Amino acid sequence: MRLDDVGFRYHRRGPWILRDVTLELAPGRVVEVTGANGAGKSTFLRLAAGLRRPRRGRVTGRPGRIGYAPERFPAAQPFTVRAYLTHMAALHGRRGDVVRTWSERLGFAHLLDVRLSELSKGSAQKVGLAQALLHEPDLLILDEPFAGLDARTRDELPALIAERAAEGATVVVSDHQRVLGPIRDRDRLLVADRTISVLGPPEAGEVPRDCATIRSSGAGEVPRDWATIRSSSVGPPGAGEDRGRFARLEVTVEVAEAKELEEGLRAAGHRVRRLP
Question: Coiled-coil stretches, from where to where (predicted)?
Answer without folding.
Answer: none
